[in-house]
Amino acid sequence: MMSAVQALQQLRDGNVRFVDDRTKGDAVIDRARRHEVAAGQEPLAIILGCSDSRVPAEIVFDRGLGDLFVIRIAGNIVAPSQIGSVEFAAERFGTRLVVVLGHSRCGAVVATVDGLLSATKHPSRNVRSITDRISPVVEPLLATDLAKDRDRLINHAVRANVRASANQLRAGSAFLEELIARGELLIVGAEYSLESGVVEFFDGVPQ
User: Fold this and answer.
1) Taking Cα atoms as reference points, which of 187, 196, 200, 163 lies closest to residue 54?
2) Chain centre distance of CA 54
């Protein structure tokens, strides 16, 4: 099984290809690969990302069938089902790298910020189940000068939300904590730029 550091470099390299319009294309999604992975999978990374249609992990990292175990939810929040999904992939497939992937101008974060600024809650309790998980991350930022600049506030909130989700994974599961302590799992946070296509890894990245 590929190490976390090796997997991280694979993702970095794939994102460079994506940004430079040098993607592999059919080489990783052709019929031969489909038959190869039908019998089993060994994903090189677990991606907990946002559901936003503009951030498909396989495309932005230039990977194909069987390469990534992707968990997508609005706002890349962490709830028990997400933790369980990460545990499942780490245990079943031995995947060593987890990436919490946020993105610029995340709609769930924007909705949370705007709701807090206007002191109103979304009418749907299901949507609130998402924004309520992001609110504790945003609220401390409202006590800073960022509250005077909505765009800067959102930019900082996106990254704070990624860090919070990564920390929840690191501390929300005895099983994952044990893997991390043994050096068998690495959890990092990253942000995808909708404008440039660049993924910046900024949290928990080894020196």
Assistant:
1) 196
2) 13
Q: How many C-beta neighbours within 10 Å does residue 38 have?
A: 10
Put simply, whether the predicted model's pTM sits higher than 0.90 gets the answer yes
Nearest CA to 45 out of 84, 99, 102 is that of 99
Give tens-digit pLDDT for 31-72.
989 999 999 999 999 999 999 999 999 999 999 999 999 999
Averaged pLDDT, 7-11:
98
For the chain, counts of helices (H) and of strands (E): 8, 5
Neighbours of 100 (CB within 10 A): 31
Question: In which residue are the tokens 């194909």 written?
Answer: 64
Q: From the CA atom positions of the chain, what is the Rg in Å?
A: 17
| CA distances (Å), origin 118, targets 37, 83, 125, 147, 205 | 49, 32, 18, 12, 36
